[in-house]
Amino acid sequence: MDLLRVEAISKNFGGVAAISNFSMVQPYNTISAIIGPNGAGKTTTFNMISGVQTVDTGKIFLEDVEITKLPSHKIQRFGVSRTFQNIRLIEGLSVIDNVKLSYTSRLTYTMFEEFIHSPRVRKNETVLEDIAMEYLEFFDLSKYAKSKPKSLSYGLQRRLELARALMNEPKLLLLDEPAAGLNPAETRELMGTIQKIQEQKNLSIIIVEHHMDLVMKICSIIHVIDFGKKIAEGTPQEIIKNKAVLQAYLGDMGGEIC
Amino acid sequence: MESGVFVQQLVNGISLGGVYAVMAVGFGLVFNVLKFSNFSHGGVVTVSAYAGFFISSKLISSFPLALIATILVGAATGLLIERLVFRPVRLAKKPLTYLFVNSITVAMMVQQTFAAIWGSYYFPYPEFFKRTAFSIGQLVFSGTYLLMLAVSAVVLILLTLFLKKTKLGIAIRAASSDIYTPPLMGINTDVITGITFIIAGALAGITGFFLGMTYTVTPFIGSSMIKGIIAAIIGGMGSLTGGVIAGILLGIVESLLIAELGSSVTPIIIYLAIVILLLVRPQGIAGNLYTVKA
């Protein structure tokens, strides 16, 4: 059984195919990447897997359970977390509440219990607070727990999104251009962090990315799409040598792949 | 103005302002989550005012129980309107203007329905208490007004606790900041929207009951929610606290002006002041400039 199986999904926007017949398999404990030029359909693919956009045709399975038509809050509860190309933190909530938010749906106590602050609520809250703080510490954010996300620098906000995504204890983590807006040093640090997360949490990660070196060094499988179609799949070594990829994706900057 | 009259009017103003504050919060909650001005809130106020009258004069004579029953009617009406009128538009991802227009239509429909059925009748609420006034020294305070003040305060405090401390409240705050991201945090925003309308409806229930107690019940009682909307806007859209403060200020200013200048000039001055205030400070008292992301 594979963790994620995408079977020939397509999405049209007003007659224009954003992505057509895209298939992929994501095994457990793997880091893989979806790469392609701007507008190739990478984010649309993520949006369909996470339920943000509906699938026109095709099917998506998570651990052999079909999730094609599920709304995004249910897919999240199945253990799929994601981050965004444009950071999407909840401005109205504190840093720690942002992190706790992605666990909220699993809390089973009633509102009445919350109002009387029953022992069960108190116990759950402490545990929740501890886990959230652990994630904040992992990303070196604990001192900002009570601040609002807006007061954090761009790089820190990116890390906070990761912390929030992990709070859901995902089996599958989707990272949409995690290095966007980061400088080379921060990008290197991020690569280390992504690998560390994968090893420690035993989860599977798919990255949509423009930073070639990031993808080449930490991913074991790369899917290449161009104009909504998959044109190649393979290990980084295979992708580097793939003619179609060099031509379609890298074009004139073919030499700069590493 | 004599100092005695002044204090009385001040207390009345704060009580009235409490009702405006409850209206502003009910209106603001829905605005924050869905980003449209929900005029159907006035419709729920009207339904509740009538429901409150029938419940208290025919079914339940105890004040707290009649109020609670009316709150339930308001909450149910709020949810019903959401599910019947707004939800289909939301799910079809139509522009916000549709929601806005639908909300006005609902408000008019409620008003006209009650006007057609009971338009020529006046419905005065029963007296709930034997003692209608309290005097402290020379000062006389209306029991109804003091009660309104106490209930509004308790309700607003409970709502604040709910929004700050409970998981549902935090989810509503999250959806108010950004309705598109919470589903990816496992939050069902469809349910959250429904709950928001239930709470707003309950607040409209309180408003309707109090307006009914203070004035006579007419089909146009819901149009007084313009005061709530004004309070929400002066307070700063997006800030419930701002709406509460503005509601109370509005109540005080209105009461004092009516005592001093009479009830025909007062609205003109108030509306004029609001226009000027929004020219000088368009973001309201507490709000940031609100950009609506459609």
- Strand order, largest beta sheet of chain B: 1-2
Radius of gyration of chain B, rounded? Answer: 19 Å
Largest sheet report of chain A: 6 strands, mixed
Mean pLDDT of chain B: 89
Instruction: Provide the CATH topology of the largest domain in chain A.
Output: Rossmann fold
Number of DSSP-assigned strands of chain B: 2
Helix percent band of chain A: 25-40%
CATH homologous superfamily title of the largest domain in chain A: P-loop containing nucleotide triphosphate hydrolases
The domain tally of chain A reads: 2
Q: Can you write the helix and strand succession of chain A as a string?
A: EEEHEEHEHHHHEHEHEEHH
Total helical elements of chain B: 10
- Roughly how many Å is the radius of gyration of chain A? 19 Å
Report the uncertain regions of chain B: 289-294
Key features of this structure:
heterodimer; A: 258 residues; alpha/beta; Rossmann fold; 2 domains; six-stranded mixed beta sheet; four-stranded antiparallel beta sheet; globular; disordered C terminus; B: 294 residues; mainly alpha; two-stranded antiparallel ribbon; 10 helices; 2 strands
In short:
The complex is a heterodimer of chains A (258) and B (294). Chain A is of the alpha/beta class.
